[in-house]
């Protein structure tokens, strides 16, 4: 006994025996193959196949899987037991069979036309018609009593011509495809005591039992997943007299077909018994179904058009968002900036660091623009970002070169310039963040605690040390050009650090600075600047003198009093010195709590630095020697001229074309920056 498998129109043709010798050889071959099957038939009325791998017949998968159809459309496949079974004899017509099948569809919800377990008087279905007839009938033979065919159909489709109840059903067919009885594919759960639906096209193996009891003339069909045992209740239970249908000699097997859509249709194992209950299949030893990647059903044209429209819309929106985002963070980058890479910050990072430059992050505001507090997202380092407006690219290369050069300055009393960023209409300078803000807030704001004299003197000395480094100790001479209390920032320990190098100018030692632009802040400007506008280290010393007096006296260099006009702090301290009551100029908030010698030194040194004649002023090295006590401050003659008003009348000073700040000082930056600080 053996199986023979065909694809296409007929998978098991009957082979006629031409001669007795040929018949004998064929019989011996059949006998040999049947003795090597996994399940041997005990007699001609029963057999079992837990997979078909030992049948050694074409079209069987290497793992023993019997395939009825593949993914070809309009295909028919048959597989029948080679030897006919004796049914309608003197013995009982009762029989039992069970098999495991699987349907793996080409598309997730659409597959072939189904599988039918068939008992037929012949294995030759050459004259079967369209595939809708499951390869068993044709248009004229469908429903004819002469067919003598019993079929149990497993139908994932629905054909109104055959009276199908719905898709995904099981039916009992006699002589045609109009079922005597049918039901949706489901099984009774003994555990949950209810029916549970099954999807024939799920691709999962399923178990079907067919049992006929001649005494009761009752045909039972039971369906279940392979993971459970046979349910207690059948899916179909139909009274039927098979003695009117089955002939004496009948073939048992399977028929399957595909239509406009297809599926793999497999039989994994099969057991049959003509005279009793069929043996149970060993489900765990059955061959595995090849895992196919299921193809998606082709979308309808309208759906496809809609999906294309949605895709175009999304691409447009995403493209616009991308362009907007690029514009939002767009920067100006030129080839010459490549060498300054480590000093260049991305605008995107600075934008995130300052929370989008929110007003809540503003630390201060001046002529240049606002200064923002920020936290770099990559390192959580606190920074201060100054936004400077500019409307020209002229001289920007030289300006950035000087900024980067000043970024190399390293001194404990200088605020570190970390780098820069350029974008549309603005330049951003990035500094170390000073948690205690600027010194002027401590001198003039009631919100901050008053600075005692020890801290003030330390701040004065620290700023002097920073200026000495700029003027003499670095590789180039750096003119700060805007020394004042608001540009002195305090770190966590209230140490003074000179910052804001937006007006600074560099030149080599032993050469003369070329800057001729009047920049700075009223009250800190040396008188010679009004003549030639040329900044030198002496002009920085003059501003530092005004700064010293500001810290010691707690007053701004220029203040508006009740009387018309402005009163110069240098003039007022100078007047106290001439009256020999110079300590009266000290900040009254100190309430006399200071070292007298230090206070007197600071006030006199402030006047010394504020001398109207540049050559009479000390250098920053001499200033440090006086503050450290390494040199004695010389006596100042009472007829000395101090301050900006000494050589020029107040009316001349009041005619200066600025009040708080002027344009940037670098020789190329007056055309770059709109306003200065």
Would you write up a description of this structure?
- With 677 residues, the chain is of the alpha+beta class.
- It folds into two domains: 261 residues, Jelly Rolls (Sandwich); 337 residues, Transferase(Phosphotransferase), domain 1.
- It is 22% helix and 22% strand.
- The protein contains twelve helices and 28 strands.
- The strands form seven sheets. Strands 1, 4, 5, 7, 8, 9, 10 and 16 form an eight-stranded antiparallel β-sheet that branches.
- A hairpin with a 5-residue loop joins β27 and β28.
- The longest helix has 28 residues.
- It is rod-shaped.
- The termini are far apart.
Uncertain ranges = 4-42, 645-677
Strand proportion, as a percent range, falls in: 15-25%
CATH superfamily of the largest domain: Transferase(Phosphotransferase) domain 1
> Helices and strands: which structural class?
alpha+beta
Largest sheet: 8 strands, antiparallel
- Classify the helix fraction into a percent range: 10-25%
Tell how many strands the DSSP assignment holds: 28
* Total DSSP helices: 12
Distance between the termini: 106 Å
Rg is 51 Å
Count of discrete structural domains: 2
Which topology of the largest domain does CATH recognise? Answer: Transferase(Phosphotransferase), domain 1
State the shape: rod-shaped
